[in-house]
Predict the structure.
Amino acid sequence: MRLVIARCSVDYAGRLSAHLPMAVRLLMVKADGCVAVHADGGAYKPLNWMNAPNTLTERDGEWVVRNPKGETLTITIEEILSDSAWELGPDPGLQKDGVEAHLQELLAANPHTIETGLVLVRREHATDIGPVDLLCRDAGGVAVAIEVKRRGEIDGVEQLTRYLERMDLDPLLRPVRGVFVAQQIKPQARVLAESRGIICVEIDYDELRGIESAELRLF
Amino acid sequence: MKFRCERDVLIEALNNAGRAVSSRGGSLPVLSGVRLELRGNALTVTGSDLDLTITMSTTVHGEADGVTVLPSKLASDIVRALEPGRVDVEVAGDEANITSGRSQFAVRAIPATEFPRITEPEGEELALDGAALAHGLRQVVSAASTDESRSAILTGVLMAAEASGLRLVATDSYRLAVRDLSSTSFLQEGQSVLVPSNALKELARLLGDGDTVRLRLGDRDAAFTVGDTTLITRLISGEFPNYRNLIPKNQPACLTVARASLLESVKRMKVVAKEPSTPVKLDMSNDGLKLTVNAQDIGSAAEELDAKYEGPELTVAFNPEYLVAGLDAAEGDEVTLECIDALKPALLRSLGNTEFLYLLMPVRVS
């Protein structure tokens, strides 16, 4: 990653032409060849940029970045204030928190957090129209089909309804109760679910992961 | 079924049994009702949510035996609304007629066959001192959790046999209450049971001074009988937290203060600390005790109290609700509050009384 702070002007020529007048800017040249021109504002978005693949030609006081389409980014440099390069190494990638698979895994390990007395029968219980996330039995031995979502919306309720219809055909399972679990359930989804006898449960992902809250506890 | 009785007799039976009626509704609609069974002049009224069952027997003037289930709240509201005096109840088919004076109500009955059969545990019947038990329960039950979704175990009160007698323990993870009842014991050495706190709240409510509790203990349930009322509760299975390790042995700071003064002062602070998350700060020094509350967007409050303090100057903040509960539960004129630092549990005791302790976790403040 090369980072150059320079007083420069920038001209883009391609589908249209654009000009950035002379000012101090950050020129970012990434290892993959991308070149971006940033001002001290505008959040993550560069003022101008050119994605890889491209070729960067450095001349005295001028950089020219050209891509295979013939578009060019010409950076005219009046003064370089800082020029540094860093080896960042391979990036592990963005790990999104709270994905459904992790939620499902946590809930499978702790079904009682959904409902007291709930015992897991299996994850990804197969039906002839697809797998329901969790199959459990409640304290009374009744089969419970659980669909887990990050955000509880109407689609998820419809999906669970279809699973319940199929599972109710199985004499070893019926009657099957439905529980719709999400970090947050939209009011419309809740109304639809409850009108179909499906229980809605909102779960606290942080608490489920055992993340320490600001509250002090004895244990 | 046909009987008559005084209105207040029927109100008491319906109210007592109705306290166990399921408020959740759900899978068994019959559980929203109370079961009335008449045999001769003995009327038995039962309410249940399957976890807790309360049955009250009372004497009425019976005319025709029978069994029915009436919607609990409706029946109770009707009878309570009647003028004092005689009430006649007659059930024919699926309709119950409740008559008093010139008032007449017809209520749709629920088929009694749908009401679940509740069996009492078969253990040996033991007699307990009701007054001591009620007293102990009132001191610890409030420390149990009411949040079933977090942990069912924490919604229970541990009743454990100790060398000195019976020990009651409850915790919601923010506080812990322990009460030893030296005069009471019904468990074998080393034995313990975990009883739902809501059942014990009902038991404490039923108990008056001088009452004796008759107890039958089964593997999965327990029955407590007080006079004409029997309360059957499921026991909670699972391992109660190892509370003994939580109780600190040595605390360098000890505040001794008049219990009533501190209790009233914290209650005054609570007026400003309307949100439970707003803590009350206790500044402890050789000069005494200063309580302060700062509630953003509301205001602040401060109060100084005479107190004896030994230890380094210390500021500790607590949830005022929990502090009030502990001070309420502790007895005696003076209490001690023993602390280690602002983030470690504080031990509240009645001065000179080793039978009750209340361990309270502070609140982190900046």
About this structure: The first strand of chain A starts at residue 2 and ends at 13.
